[in-house]
Amino acid sequence: MTLSPSAQLEALLFAEGGPLTKKQICALLDFSAHTLVLAVDDLVVSLAARGLAVVETESELELRTSPWAADIVKKLRESELSRDLGKASLETLAIILYRGTATRTDIDWVRGVNSAAALRALLLRGLIERGEDEADKRRARYRATVDALAHLGVSRREDLPRYSELAGAIAEGEARKELAETDV
User: Fold this and answer.
1) Cα–Cα distance for residue pair 141/143, rounded to 1 Å
2) What is the dihedral of CA 85, 90, 91, 94, to 10 degrees?
3) Whole-angstrom Cα distance, residue 100 to residue 124?
4) pLDDT band for position 3 (50/70/90)?
5) Confidence of residue 45 (pLDDT cuts 50, 70, 90)
6) From CA 138, how far away is CA 14, in angstroms rounded?
7) pLDDT recorded at residue 163
8) Tell me, what DSSP letter sits at residue 65?
9) Partners of 56 in the beta sheet?
10) What are the DSSP E strand ranges found in 57-156?
């Protein structure tokens, strides 16, 4: 079965879970700029009676919940915030804290599983913040907030258990990794 251009676009935006540039979309789906415009228009029409909407800027597209679903989404957010942090979120927070900053790829590699849900939970609670990765502007880099330290009952990262030992081991591992990459 061949998907229509709007269905291909919907699948791509859903799978990304965040904004994609129009240029990236055209390259990934082998669309012309005109085909992309038509696909966006078709997708907007097909989503009109559903709980999703396409958010479009001059250069990016993103699939989001529609404004009409705000009350439903608000209930979900409140429900999520009332639960305790789970093991996955605590592991993710620990990785970010001991490394200083981390990309989702870094976190997924350490944990061995997809960390998107844990990152989302931490972002919603304000325990981490998302910033631009200076090395690769296409990636996000996560860092702990002051609220994260307060949540854990410490004043600074250096007060975390075994911080010096673990931070040193992480730095040593990163140095080895960089050295191995330059030798290749």
Assistant:
1) 7
2) 160
3) 20
4) very high
5) very high
6) 18
7) 87
8) E
9) 61
10) 60-65, 101-103, 128-132, 140-144
**Which tokens hold the place of 136?**
């690769």
Both tokens of 7, joined, read 């269905």
DSSP 111-175: HTS--HHHHHHHHHTTSEEEEE-SS-TTSEEEEE-HHHHHHHT-SSGGGSTTHHHHHHHHHHHHH
Long-range own/partner contacts, residues 155-159 (CB < 8 A, 24 or more apart): 157/97, 157/98, 157/100
Residue/partner pairs of 154-159 with CB below 8 Å, 24 or more apart: 157/97, 157/98, 157/100
Instruction: Please state whether beta strands 128-132 and 101-103 pair in parallel, antiparallel, or not at all (unpaired).
Output: unpaired
Only one residue has tokens 């290749």, namely 184
Please state, in angstroms and rounded to a whole number, the distance separating the CA atoms of residues 149 and 157: 7
Q: Is 14 helix (H, G, I), strand (E, B) or coil?
A: helix
> From residue 42, how far is each of 3, 9, 46, 138 by CA, in Å?
13, 10, 6, 28
CA 176 to chain centre: 27
What is the tens place of the pLDDT at every residue in 78-104? 665 456 778 999 899 999 999 889 999
| Token pair belonging to 151 | 């949540």
Beta-carbon neighbour count of residue 118 at 10 Å? 25
Block residue for tokens 């979120």: 89
> pTM surpassing 0.70?
no
